[in-house]
Amino acid sequence: MAIIKPFKGYRPKKEAAHLLACRPYDVLNSDEAREEVKSNPRSFLHVTKSEVDLSPEIDIHSDTVYQKAKSNLGEMIANGTFKQDDVPCYYIYAQTFWGRTQYGIVGCAAVEDYLNNVIKKHELTRPDKEEDRKNHIRITNFNAEPVFFAFPDNASLDAIIKKTVAKEPVYGFTANDGVGHQLWVISNQETVQKIEHIFSNEVPFTYVADGHHRTAAAAHVGEERKIKNPSHTGNEEYNFFMAVHFQASELTIIDYNRVVKDLNGHTTESFIKKLEESFSVEKIGKEEYKPRKLHEFSMYIEGYWYRLKAKVNAFNDCDPIDCLDVTVLSNHVLAPILNITDLRKSTRIDFVGGIRGLGELKKRVDSGEMAAAFALYPVSMDQLIKIADTGNIMPPKTTWFEPKLRSGLVLHCLD
Question: Are 172 and 289 in a shared domain?
Fold first, then answer.
């Protein structure tokens, strides 16, 4: 069963929360982060992307950057911007987006659960990205950003969430991207103990939805500290890391689309002819077309949108990986026709989150940067859970979760 522990979070002053809250470190580059802190000097990006305070020429993975993050965070705590709660708490974090609200329980997941696969994964991690976040945690001594987990729906936890959010939140604001954010603190120790008991007795697994690298980094830093501590008991704070846990039914995965730089020597006509071996191809016209169901794709090429429907021999719905549309596209378009076989390394393909809309695909093709674009029907949470439960790994760039969690609302110290 899953261990989800309460903790004494560090939280900002109420009047500062909306200024500190920032997008995750990996959804904007250094230049974008520098621009953001110019317009909002109090942004928590000073901690999560501390290169904003250093020369643009600096290596963002240098020790200087991590030390700057530590210094900036230390100053924020010293001047009272962040204050630690007096008792172990859980927190309810709500996000409102596209007319719907999702509610997550902020608590600390266990390093042992990650190592023993009670926390289930669906993506591989890259060692360089993992090491970057490990260094950030090692040097700052904090989980400065939460990771994004899902868990099977639970009526008892849902009732606690509903009762909590009926009260006034501690923080409540709408960010400049239109997403609403609210946070409630659960400090009543009877309720805290009840939540911990429900997780440890009724929730068998949790699932990494978004943040595989941060999750792996936090778990491995905890493991490192365990090995180095001859008096290790298992109760130390480094044995746990901060995560926001959402009921699976509340989450929505949006499409993660592909653009390719060339047609591997094909003309548009010969390329479409090859597509017809595995798809029925219908020319829609100049109006944007979005896939409406599984195994249906849209393609934009030379100013026109096409609907592609995979033929029955192009997928296997009995296999959790072969039924994915990213697999269908790779197996019947990218690899055999375009000779793009390694999605992680190929420079001839790029990936566009569905949050940018189909207009971004059209823009990149019309500009001449890309030769064609493919929009996919989004993966479902049921598919993600089935893949994780069977020990499989999704192909790269399969899932895109929105909205992103804001950093800087709650922090977890490893001491």
Answer: no
- Confirm whether 272 is domain-assigned: yes
Same domain, 78 and 190: yes
Per-residue model confidence (pLDDT) at position 344:
84
Residues 102, 13: Cα–Cα separation, whole Å:
24
The domain total for the chain is 2
Entry pTM: 0.91
Residues 214 and 358 in one domain: no
Provide the total of helices (H) and of strands (E) in the chain, helices listed first: 13, 21
Question: Are 327 and 349 within one domain?
Answer: yes
Single-letter residue type at 201: N
Cβ atoms within 10 Å of 355's Cβ, excluding its own = 17
Task: Express each pLDDT in 137-169 by its tens digit.
Answer: 999 999 999 999 999 999 999 999 999 999 999
CB 135 within 8 A of CB 61: yes
Taking alpha carbons only, the member of 27, 404, 26 closest to residue 251 is 404
CA dihedral 45, 51, 57, 59 (to 10 degrees): -120
Range of the domain at 291: 256-377
Non-local (6+) Cβ contacts of 318 within 8 A are: none
Q: Can you tell me the distance from the alpha carbon of 32 to that of 36, in angstroms, rounded to the nearest whole number?
A: 6
Q: Does residue 89 fall inside a structural domain? A: yes
Alpha-carbon distance 110 to 4, whole Å? 7
Q: What is the pLDDT, as a whole number, of residue 325? A: 96
- Greatest CA separation for the chain: 69
* Residue range 286-314, pLDDT digits in tens: 999 999 999 999 999 999 999 999 999 99
The answer to whether the beta carbons of residues 107 and 6 sit under 8 Å apart is yes
